[in-house]
Amino acid sequence: MTILTMSEKNQKPDWVPENAGKEFTTSVMAGVDGGHDGLRGQTSVAVSRPTTPRRKRLTVDEYVAGVLAKDRNIVAQAITLVESNAQAHFNMGQEVLRQLIPYTGNSIRVGITGVPGAGKSTFIEALGLHLCEQGHKIAVLAVDPSSTVTRGSILGDKTRMELLSRDLRAFIRPSPSSGTLGGVARKSRETILVCEAAGFDVILVETVGVGQSETTVRSMVDFFLLLMISGAGDELQGIKKGIMELADALLVNKADGDNKVRAHAARADYNRALHYLAPATEGWRTKAYTCSALTGEGINTIWNVISDFRQQITASGVLEKRRQRQTLDWVYSMVEEHLRTSFFNHAGVGSIRADIEEAVVNGHIPPTVAAQMLIKKYEG
Predict the structure, then answer these.
(1) pLDDT tens string 49-65
(2) Which residues sit opposite 112 in a β-bridge?
(3) Listed residue (193, 169, 182, 2) closest to 79, CA to CA
(4) How many CA atoms lie less than 13 Å away from 306 in the CB half-sphere?
(5) Residue 3 CB coordination number (10 Å)
């Protein structure tokens, strides 16, 4: 392959016959001096490239002021700060949260879960656009499943909510689940507080729809919505999944077209099943509804249900008690996480762990004795 320099004019390719005329219109044009696209340049002339300035490191006061000023960029940076597992970021993130707490608690927190394929993202976009038109500010915390192999996550929820992501009244924040039980990222609670301080009055938490582990979302939201689809099994099968008894409302999605009749039949089945379950919230009766995220039918109805729920439990004092209980659960879940991390990082435990595991697997000692030995080493 011949490399041309700037001193050479347009030339014909090697495959053109030597005495050919203008019938061969193909020609090779000289390129640009200097390197490009990672290739070494043909001259010694230095090519200057623009440099991207490094992002300024914000102080705690700048984070707090930016969030309260509803600066979307700083809100996103503040969430990244509190989500970070780096020790250097932990203290700063906690101080930011401490200063933001007086400005939190004014939103309705709605957890949304359901089986894969129930249309959670489509429903959230339809509900979000509806609420934006009514003057609400929406924050969507969409938790993506992390791979158990690579620990990676696609974080593609914004692509599934294209219209909502372009609305300036909405803020979508995809986060990896990081293997956390319930598909809710470890820092989701802190993210909720940041969004509330930034003035978002409706917080929608979409979780990974994989079954019983989704009940963890109940510990951080006010209203728990379970999305269902018709044809997923009878009402007894739904009860076995262990989620219906925690839901404040069931919503059969995709009630449109030929599926509309089946969706209404499924709603009737679920309502009959709900008669045998204790209410998830004191003083509130859980019911099943239908909607179509595609056509928008039923979206306003389910929002009215959520609004009535908030008014009722606020007046009865149930909301205040629930949030107090959730805060205490938050404290002890962090204690459990710290103790677990401390245990497995303990040098003494690490020195005997392999031998004890081998002894248990080979049947030389029972699991209870093995646990006592590990705990004794940790406490010693």
Answers:
(1) 666 666 678 999 999 99
(2) 206, 225
(3) 193
(4) 25
(5) 8
Q: Are 245 and 239 in contact, with CB atoms under 8 Å apart?
A: yes
Residue type, 151: R
What distance in Å separates the CA atoms of residue 332 and residue 178, rounded to the nearest whole number? 19
Spell out the residues 6+ positions from residue 22 whose beta carbon is closer than 8 angstroms to its own: none
pLDDT tens, residue by residue, 18-39: 666 665 555 556 665 555 555 5
Q: Where are the domains of the chain?
A: 1-32, 77-316, 329-379
93: tokens are 């993130």
Q: What are phi and psi of 227, to 5 degrees?
A: -90, 130
Architecture of domain 77-316: 3-Layer(aba) Sandwich (3.40)
Long-range contacts of 154-158, Cβ-Cβ distance < 8 Å, separation of 24 or more: 157/121, 157/206
Model confidence, pTM = 0.76
Tokens describing residue 11: 């030339």
- DSSP assignment of 300-349 equals HHHHHHHHHHHHHHHHHTHHHHHHHHHHHHHHHHHHHHHHHHHHHT-HHH
Does the structure show a pLDDT above 90 at 337?
no
Which two structure tokens, joined as six digits, stand for 94?
């906690």
- Alpha-carbon separation of residue 14 from 7, 21, 29, 201 (angstroms): 19, 14, 13, 68
Query: What is the reported pLDDT for 150?
Result: 41
